[in-house]
User: What shape does this take?
Amino acid sequence: MTSLALVVALDPHAAMLRITRAPDGEAPPITHTVHLGEPGRHGHQGWIDERWATFDGAVLAAAGPLADESTLQLRFQLPPGWRLVTGLPGRGTTRTLEGSHGRSPWQILRSTCIAAGPFVRRSAQGSPLQVFTLPDHALPEQVQHAAAVWRVAHDALGFAPPHGYTVAWGPPAPGGEPVHGGTNERGSCTSHDGSHRPLELMAHRLAHAVNRDGPWAAPPPHARDHWFVEGFATWFEHEALRRAEVPGRARLPAWRARADRIHRQHPSWRVPLGSEPRVSGDLAEHLHYVRGPLAAHALDQALRERSGKDLLSFVAHLAHTRQRPDDLRRAIARWSGVTLDDVFARYVESASPPSPR
Assistant: This one.
């Protein structure tokens, strides 16, 4: 295990990062370039132009292997007037990473988004959340919505990381296409066009911080329950915004309509949700982001009606007790005191589940 310093220079004119790695000994530094803006699931994956830049820390692996380093020091060279916005520890343009909670510096880096630009910190009343936007892109209502979503994750899921949470919102790409620089347990860096989608992405990753990614997370290890990781996080997009009283966006009707339409168009996609680990491509996407959240919603409804508890409290219990249940159905039954065999049969095991109402 060694210590490594990287110099990350942002070049807006060339739309790239220049990453310089100084090897041990007398060897000369080696500089690598990374071009940002490739198409991704949520729009352009990373971005840099004369207004701002954002990217996931994982792109810095272009400088070579980083997994064996015990300490990583990052020095960012920014255009005049720009500031660094990230959940990485440190101040100014220098960040030093050491292992924490059983995670290596590289694991921390690759699960952190980074943004830079002439950002201004906005006030999120009653929340330790840090929200940054550009000077002409204040978004005061959305900043308060973000604080409310964060409070839902904190209060209902017990999300209280020692490193806090940082949000950076920049403008869309020219032409209005979205930009996604990463959302994870340390922060969210995306473009913001005034819609609710950045809040939903933030909620999704806050859920993953508790059910998969964070050092305190407790994902279900059995393959038949893998659907719950993405299904719960996607359903939390809806539930977090509902509890935060964010107006104007209802995900459940859209999921129901899409599930019904896709099952009519693709009869072969009528497969049990528990088969998710064995499928790929568009069918896996359908199970992850349509069938999964509908099943999670059905479980939540049944828990509320039969036990007075809810699904968020169950996931918070798993995370708090560090439990990794061998069987999701039995774990819910032990915790709640009620059985949900009929719900699992209809929404998880059935190849033709109904849409929960």
